[in-house]
Fold each of these.
Amino acid sequence: MLFHSTRGGAAIPLADAIVTGLAPDGGLYVPEQFPAHNAADFDPQTNLASIGEQLIRPFFAADLLTDELSDICREALNFPVPLVRTRDQNLSIVELFHGPTAAFKDVGARFLAACLSRISGSDRPTVMVATSGDTGSAVAAACAERPGLRVVILYPRGGVSARQEHQLNCWGDNVLSLRVNGDFDACQAMVKAAFLDQQLRKACPLTSANSISAARLLPQMSYYAAASLRWHAEHGSKANFIVPTGNLGNALAGVWARRCGMPIGRIVLATNANTVIPRFLESGQWQPGDTVATLASAMDVGNPSNMERLRHLHPGHQDLVEQVSAFAVDDTTIEAVIKDSFHSLQMAVCPHTATALAAYKQLSGPSDAEHWIALATAHAAKFEGTVEPLIGQAVEVPPALAALLRRPTRQVDIEPSNGALREQLLNW
Ligand SMILES: *Cc1c(COP(=O)(O)O)cnc(C)c1O
């Protein structure tokens, strides 16, 4: 299937959209159409990889990667994504944190790496990503196991947790992790400058692994499909979803999955104190602002780039507000919910997941006729500094994460200058 930019222009094959990342006109790649699946054609009991493959196969039609899709899905979607009932009978949780780096970013990062490793050698770009934590570690982990790939990660000194930093720096020679003596915006500015540096890109072809990547969005549709199909098979009704939201990549995948015919009811977005999305749905005015630092740091986004894809799909404001609704959740509430759900649901949740549980509480009168599925986007052990004091005990570290934390690390520091990054890349 062909993909084109949200801003128009010529359509290109999916594999090219994956390699290119951002369209040359600054827009984001979207599919020319969405397949119309029938839920009854899926086996809800089969694994995530099979459901994902069936769901996204039409996007890979006539593509360079079409014959590889089955293997890509099997390699990338190879960890459990359980749908767990809670003590509240109207609420279930999809645990998206059983991958190698304990956050849902593993799904997209592993799929992207599996795709890129199948692009032939000379066309295969180096992956570059600025990260505030979870994306960088997921991309590093996914690429580290594929020696043919190279990945450069820029993260802000002092801007990530100790465990996140360990996960960024514990890899082999094909992962270059740079600790930038600046903030996240400085990291992003360096990445942007590198992408605009044509001379550098000739010497070192680059692609982005940020959540604008089509190869991250498409596989994220599969856990919405798996959870909704299972719910539908067992109860005959559509489940509603609540999604912790920052750059809108995760939530957009849910909107796309519903558009493809998956039995999904309402989609509710939960943001932290970065309220640009709820304010937009309320007023119709798109007013991106400065990023506010919150406890749910992976959602600290002042200008969510995937909104451009959502608005492309639903250009009319009335149409858009019928597709999604949103709640903003402040840090005080995040803390209260982490505490409360530890007692009432007997679950330790990360600050991002807590925003979804807070949004659930704000829904106007959830009735027994409706079931809600909240996405748990990271394991609480990744944010132990916030969670443990609130619940008054240690959070057990999942085995995959514990294995990473035992690996040795090495540290490369860099000044926030485009020249310094260039030098690192050319001398690598
Ligand atoms: C990245 C991230 C989010 C936000 O996802 P978006 O796709 O940017 O909306 C939420 N929770 C966690 C744990 C994350 O790492």
Amino acid sequence: MAQNPSLSSQLSRISRPSEQLRSIVHLPGPFAELPRHPILYSHPSPIHPLPSLSVTPQSPNHPRINIYAKREDHGAPLACAGNKYRKLEYIVPDILSSTPTYHYHEHHPTTQKLDGPATILVTEGAIQSNHTVQVAALARTLGLKALVLLSRGTGGGLRASQDRDSFVRSGNVQINRLLGAEVRILNEGDPVASDANPILEELRASGERPYWIPGGASLHALGGLGYARAAFEIEMQECGLNLEGSGRFDYIFVACGSGSTVGGLLAGFKLGETGTRQVIGVLNSPTKPRSYHADRVLSFARRAAAQIGFDGNERPTAEQAIAMDDVRLEDRFVGTGYGVLDVETTEVMRIMAQSESIILDPVYTAKVARAMMHWVREDEIQEFARQRGLQDVNILFIHTGGQAALGAYADVI
Ligand SMILES: *Cc1c(COP(=O)(O)O)cnc(C)c1O
């Protein structure tokens, strides 16, 4: 397939940056009223073309495939910008509330109330978790402490590393420490890795008001709202991009880890009702089957849908509105483990770096890009265009951040 050489012709189709910067996301009624604490820049994260990956048709029967990236890794001024800041925007009002509602550990929903705003954020992740860094950075800006629990047993990145000692000190671990978070490295099999409640109790006993944020913030009751709002932001940006063909992004490729990024997007696109977009959630770990992720994504999407205006508004209920057909979960590129880089995925990181000067992260976005490149070569996207008589298919790749983990992968790349 021929490559599309013309960066300037693609760039010229985009509205001027100043136009993108000024835009404000308009949310419908009940959604607009939900409290949100701004963490991201006030302008949308940028969307730009990826000309070297886009494909020009070789014959009149083939569509042109236009590929764009949405840079969630450029979405916020805080350390290591990535998708978790967007979720946290809707959680901060509860953190700062004089009567927090969702501060408890998910296994202990009846835990005692906090008698005031949180004093310390507590969260968890794999050793090279990006989420924990975003929580630690947020804590700093809110004037709170942070306790970060990192589990040696989560995923295979540590096990696959040639230099395990460095893996548990570099990359995101180093940044967590630099941000002033207390970091506790949990050994494999430590019961706290699956239930941190004893730590929260200890903190309460010592006079702190701990606020628990589950891994990836997905199990948090408000965790899906950020990406529901992102769906409206994408719809708004589509209008300024003058996209060919359907005028929309027909396919959206995004990582699916803990699941509320995909879940939130589904809820937001459903409420937006501006037409169908095929969301492809790319899984990155073989540990759990696709059905496990499907159940989670569906439950996060429905929960967010109920919060943003489906239930009780003469609309279909959240249950009726969102079904599994609304998303495809791609599990062919999970590789041998969460956080483990295989040869093919490493090659995709090199291609992205050397053709577009874009650095992917080794855990999520590299696998997403690999899946997307595979789909572009497959017939399905061509068939989609043929059925609709489209000369152009538009694809959006969401870059969710995570590059700081690369430091721990120096032995692989
Ligand atoms: C957490 C994370 C994801 C996955 O998002 P979920 O909402 O957990 O599915 C994707 N990419 C990066 C870089 C992340 O840090």
Amino acid sequence: MAAAARDWRLAPSAALLLVCLAGSARGAFHRQLSAKLNPGYSSLPPGGDLLHVRAVGVNDTLHYLFSSQGAPTLLLLHTDSASSDIQVNWTQFLARNTSGGLWVEPESSLQFSSALVFSRLLEYDDVNDTATPTSDLFPPYDLQNFTWSRLNLSGPAPTALLCGGVARGSLCLRLAVFGDEGRGQRWPRLLHSANSSQMEVWLDGVAPRSPRSRFLLELQTVGGAYLPSRVDVHRSIDDEFTPSIFQVSQWVSSAVDGSAVLGFVQWKPVAYRRSDPVLEDATPCRHSEPVPQSGAAAASSSALVRAFFATPHAVGLNVSFGLAGEPFYNGSGFLSWTLLVGVGSPPVDAFSPLVVGIMAVSLGTPMILLLLGGVCVCFRKRDGTNAGQAYEPIN
Ligand SMILES: *[C@@H]1O[C@H](CO)[C@@H](O)[C@H](O)[C@H]1NC(C)=O
Ligand SMILES: *[C@@H]1O[C@H](CO)[C@@H](O)[C@H](O)[C@H]1NC(C)=O
Ligand SMILES: *[C@@H]1O[C@H](CO)[C@@H](O)[C@H](O)[C@H]1NC(C)=O
Ligand SMILES: *[C@@H]1O[C@H](CO)[C@@H](O)[C@H](O)[C@H]1NC(C)=O
Ligand SMILES: *[C@@H]1O[C@H](CO)[C@@H](O)[C@H](O)[C@H]1NC(C)=O
Ligand SMILES: *[C@@H]1O[C@H](CO)[C@@H](O)[C@H](O)[C@H]1NC(C)=O
Ligand SMILES: *[C@@H]1O[C@H](CO)[C@@H](O)[C@H](O)[C@H]1NC(C)=O
Ligand SMILES: *[C@@H]1O[C@H](CO)[C@@H](O)[C@H](O)[C@H]1NC(C)=O
Ligand SMILES: *[C@@H]1O[C@H](CO)[C@@H](O)[C@H](O)[C@H]1NC(C)=O
């Protein structure tokens, strides 16, 4: 598609018009962002940091909380007030034995809350290159037991980097929160809105426990009430932004009656085997079906879950990297995967103006030719009937 696209770049004026329209529509919805590390704590808290990003809209606020106290956790709180704020009782938050260590003020403004916990890293020996983790699992890496680096916060759009050591290498997470619609700079170049954040996860230089090791990442979403959770897979014919990938997976929490999507985790089923990838470094990934998990275990693994939810309900799934026949981890010693976390409906990759232009030209041209052809045939027919009269029937 990309090669074809280049050839058509100048052709359709319709595409140019669409580019203009898309350009003017962008920036319609904006959130004001502000970030604070360890709000209300005078120094660096023992055991890990807590980042708070406020994303203030017209009449609402999204609070992003990211913490490395225990398993890395991103908590998203949506309130219907532009002046809502977060309070932390650090004594309770750090003791991690009761809920109520973190809350929203005013409490009545809370509309939706959901946490994403990065719970475990699993590794298996894929001796027969089937990419099906069954019996050959190594003991899992429990992310709650890692010694995490301090959160490294950088701007202007708040970005936070967290790394933990694993088998002579590192597992890193980079959170970026957005105030406007846009698209990631690097593959998979996910489309984000002002209601979402992006998390990049990568495994760098980890010493695999077998030459044919593959990895899985276990994720959990946690809510205060049970919310139906499912993964929808959407297909597309457009891979302009993520070459060779025609799917997007959306793990959504919908209202109890199933009507509205309240929150989502979205990703493309692709990981990259180098930090500066070319197309050959893309490797497919798969997810398992979401299954209910112990809420109590989620609370004991994550300080944010413990502090915020009185009765946590958790659902988990695994993302596995690589398919049968794909290179093993030891080939490059690197693996990165990107996901989006947000409230409301997930962003939808509309056909890009370029693709619309190509379709318009490639479908339109035969149409015009057909029409022209039809007109010609009509004229020929009329000529034909006239001509026919010049012949005498043969008896
Ligand atoms: C914000 O709230 C005010 C007062 O409740 C209301 O008049 C206004 O329409 C709201 N604006 C939006 C964009 O929802
Ligand atoms: C924090 O919680 C502790 C233990 O429950 C309590 O004694 C203390 O008063 C609380 N601090 C604040 C500022 O609410
Ligand atoms: C929680 O832990 C703190 C500090 O270890 C302790 O003082 C407190 O009694 C504990 N609270 C509960 C409810 O177990
Ligand atoms: C790998 O293949 C061998 C031979 O077919 C078989 O005996 C063994 O059980 C397989 N191992 C796994 C983990 O599937
Ligand atoms: C991680 O720590 C928890 C709590 O201390 C413990 O129950 C669990 O067994 C540990 N996991 C691993 C893999 O060591
Ligand atoms: C924090 O991140 C910036 C940019 O990624 C980097 O230059 C800097 O060295 C990092 N600081 C620490 C303490 O890791
Ligand atoms: C983001 O959330 C706000 C407030 O709920 C809503 O008005 C807006 O349409 C949402 N934007 C997108 C792109 O979903
Ligand atoms: C990875 O393991 C395979 C199988 O043992 C081996 O042939 C290959 O040399 C290893 N690659 C690296 C980079 O270590
Ligand atoms: C992830 O995979 C491991 C190993 O197969 C399994 O024990 C665990 O239950 C899975 N987790 C989820 C949430 O499905």
